[in-house]
Backbone:
């Protein structure tokens, strides 16, 4: 099933697209050569409980819109939560006045009509049913009780359940108009094991578009408790250079480093360690990485980008080779290229590139088979700090996890640092076969040989 922009106008029960159309028309009448506008309407409920008692139950609703106007090559952006006729009239006046005095930006501008998305699939990314407070309370209760029932758990940091739904609408003077809804439901539990200076904590969580797709609450709680118990009595290890495994809970962070490094603005400024690597092998030949905005019920799926441009599935890394940058209109013009449809934006700033659902394809070997080869190594389950240099690729982060001895996870380890350079890490990477698409940015267990462990 596909939906066209004209259909969107006919099925605009809340009138948000008509509101944006009117706002753009006022901007054009006031002297703007071009304009676009974006609107967000959101509602959310969040529940937190600890040791069986509800500590927080909050509901919030918000609405915000932003107007961007162009006078020649000058642009200005203003936002407002007030949608009265008087407020919107003043919004247009402020935007035009600002645009007339700011410096020119030769790369700014809205999409050409031929770049616009004309139809899009139904991605099923909005659950229209809002869960009751009782449902959220029950989910949190079950998760916390299951976590506390795990032998060795001594205390709870609590369980959280939440729901949110948003309407996103975009319109522009080039004729584009589209809107869609997104929803999310989440559940988490966090517990403590041990006492005094020997305490350790861990957690588990899940997040889905539909509440019916959430993992079982008791399973989430048990996993949180069992993860925490496995961390008891950690040891320190000596500094060395060994193979390092990244658990799926942390391996997806490596994809974030990649997408940041291939973001158009970083490439245009020359501030990325991958700035000269287009078309070259930057990963091991076995690695393929996909960006797919059309995943059904995907947490980061979208029918079009924030500039109304068509979005499509792209292979970012194919057999280890870098194939594309992530571009919005402005960064594409800077680089003399075409936008890749990755624009995202809020109401108070211009668009910028952002990935959709990104995942590393599963490898051919199991995690157990990959571990079996390791005499000494480190299995990472937690990372701390932000020690990643996007200009040089240098990587250094605090870590916790398990030491590997003779192919087995032998004992917990904490208070160490793992270090390397992302260029080398990517080239020495192997993916296991345990990929699960859970969070919108996903990777299987990953093995990287030759990383430095800084310990005792």
Residues:
């Amino acid at each position: 099933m596909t939906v066209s922009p004209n259909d969107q106008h006919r099925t605009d029960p809340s009138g948000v697209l008509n509101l944006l159309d009117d706002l753009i028309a006022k901007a054009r009448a006031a002297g703007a050569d071009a304009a676009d506008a974006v609107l967000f309407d959101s509602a959310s409920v969040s529940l937190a409980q600890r040791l069986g008692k509800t500590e927080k139950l909050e509901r919030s609703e918000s609405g915000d819109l932003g107007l961007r106007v162009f006078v020649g090559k000058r642009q200005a952006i203003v936002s407002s939560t007030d949608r009265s006729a008087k407020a919107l009239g003043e919004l247009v006046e402020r935007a035009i006045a600002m645009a007339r005095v700011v410096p020119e930006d030769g790369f700014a501008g809205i999409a050409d009509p031929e770049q616009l998305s004309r139809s899009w699939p139904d991605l099923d990314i909005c659950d229209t049913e809002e869960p009751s407070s009782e449902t959220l309370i029950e989910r949190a209760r079950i998760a916390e009780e299951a976590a506390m029932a795990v032998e060795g758990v001594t205390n709870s940091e609590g369980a959280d359940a939440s729901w949110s739904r948003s309407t996103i609408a975009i319109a522009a003077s080039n004729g584009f108009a589209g809107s869609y809804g997104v929803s999310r439901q989440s559940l988490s539990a966090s517990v403590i094991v041990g006492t005094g200076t020997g305490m350790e904590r861990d957690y588990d969580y899940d997040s889905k578009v539909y509440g019916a797709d959430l993992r079982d609450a008791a399973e989430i709680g048990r996993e949180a408790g069992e993860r925490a118990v496995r961390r008891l009595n950690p040891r320190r290890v000596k500094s060395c250079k060994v193979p390092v495994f990244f658990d799926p809970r942390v391996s997806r962070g490596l994809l974030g480093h990649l997408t940041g490094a291939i973001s158009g603005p970083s490439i245009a400024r020359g501030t990325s360690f991958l700035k000269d690597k287009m078309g070259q092998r930057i990963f091991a030949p076995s690695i393929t990485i996909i960006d797919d905005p059309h995943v059904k019920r995907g947490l980061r799926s979208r029918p079009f980008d924030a500039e109304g441009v068509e979005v499509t599935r792209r292979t970012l890394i194919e057999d280890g080779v870098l194939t594309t940058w992530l571009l919005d209109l402005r960064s594409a013009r800077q680089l003399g290229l075409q936008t890749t449809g990755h624009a995202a934006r809020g109401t108070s700033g211009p668009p910028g590139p952002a990935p959709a659902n990104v995942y590393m394809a599963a490898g051919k070997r199991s995690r157990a088979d990959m571990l079996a080869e390791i005499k000494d190594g480190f299995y990472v389950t937690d990372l701390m700090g932000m020690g990643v240099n996007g200009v040089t690729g240098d990587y250094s982060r605090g870590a916790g996890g398990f030491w590997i001895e003779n192919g087995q996870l032998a004992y917990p380890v904490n208070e160490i640092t793992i270090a390397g350079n992302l260029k080398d890490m990517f080239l020495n990477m192997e993916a296991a076969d345990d990929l699960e698409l859970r969070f919108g940015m996903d990777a299987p267990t990953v093995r990287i040989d030759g990383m430095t462990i800084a310990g005792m």
Remarks:
- The chain has ten helices and 21 strands.
- Confidence is low (pLDDT under 50) at residues 1-11.
- The chain has two domains: 13-217, 234-455.
